[in-house]
Amino acid sequence: MRILFWHGYLLGGTGSNVYTRALAREWSRAGHDVVVFCQERHPEQYDVGGAEVVRPDIGGLLPVFVLDRYEGLEAKLLQDFTRAERERYVELNAAALREQLPADVVFTNHVLLGAPVGAASGAPFAVKAHGSELEYSMRGNAELSVWGRETLAHARSVFVGSAHIRAVLEDVVGHVDRVQEVPPGVDVDEFKPEPRDVALDHLLDEAIADPPNPDNAEERLPDAYNAERFEAFFADERPTVLYFGKLIRNKGVHLLLEALGGLNAKGVIVGFGPQRRELESMAPLGTLFTGPLEHRHLVHLLPAVDVAVVPSIFPEAFGMVAAEAAAAACPPLVARHSGLAEVAEGIEATYPPQHRHLVAFESGNVTDLRTKLHELLELGPEVRKELGAAARSAVVQRWSWSSVGERLLSLHLG
């Protein structure tokens, strides 16, 4: 089949970016003719299988849900766009789609602006709601909610990643027909167990290969000298706790740093964001901040640590980070809410009964987080290895990308 996959952003970093490149890769590997529409200026850095990448000319103004810096573009919150700016953006992207028609499937990301772009293309289309647009831009904004509802009405299929996002979608835009629940996936061939010494050697090799970043001036690149810093960090044999994601308050990183205080453990914090300096100032001595890392780093970093914590205090569409950690056989510990709770339930089902309480903690509760971290780290490496293997089995059974890609197409076309 010929599949046109519209995504307004990049191919690395955030959940919807990872979702896009993973699906493009799986669909093209399955023999489909895939075209990805995005604003990624360096698509050669990412594995999208045999998919073609097209970058529509959007006139330099990019609507976003969280303000970040984008090379060559001016990022502006969607809710701050004028009607004329929104309409221009939609038409420029829809025109790029129309140039590639006909297609068997047109698949768009985000209720806004995926549904308006899909509708303006003139072709039957599907929309994947990711949650960020709903929570950060549309909730409480009557005009955007109405626009989302009106354009979703033209979609042949609307996909959500969890029961939580299904509820959020209905809460924000009202009742939507043809909603299908398909969780995101994990590349279980990429994220997999690895002996710790081998993983660390590979991690150092990847860090050595990082592009130069003098004075860490580019926040979207890994920090300078990470190879040397990793080597010194892991020479300390205390257990290691990992966070990877955006460095913003909603992700709850401050809770993890507070919980680490008093524990016989060290933390490694991966990511970029406006709160990095504040978080560094409150971090326990010995905490390592690396800047953002790519999958090529994370697939080796995860097997080299003892626990991965997902402390988000804001609703999450799906616990992608937790699922990736579990696939690498690194036991995750997540805040029990929204899509994270659904991932936790899947992993708990594979744990021995006496350890099921160690998958999740009460959202926002530093004491509960610290208590469960302490208990996990006190179990010892062999028991944690058993828990990691159980967690991976849950991911393989429920959330592999190949099964996700097949299910999306079959539900949309069926």
Structure description:
This protein has 414 residues and is an alpha/beta fold. The chain is built from 16 helices and 15 strands. It has helices at residues 15-29, 83-98, 111-121, 132-138, 142-152, 163-173, 196-208, 226-235, 253-260, 276-282, 295-304, 320-327, 338-348, 366-378, 381-398, 401-413, and strands spanning 2-6, 33-37, 52-54, 61-64, 74-77, 105-109, 126-128, 157-160, 179-181, 240-244, 266-270, 288-291, 307-310, 332-335, 360-361. It has a seven-stranded parallel sheet with strand order 3-2-1-6-7-8-9, sandwiched between helices. Helix 3 packs across helix 5 (142-152), helix 7 runs antiparallel to helix 8 (226-235) and helix 12 (320-327) packs parallel to helix 13 (338-348). 51% of the residues are buried.
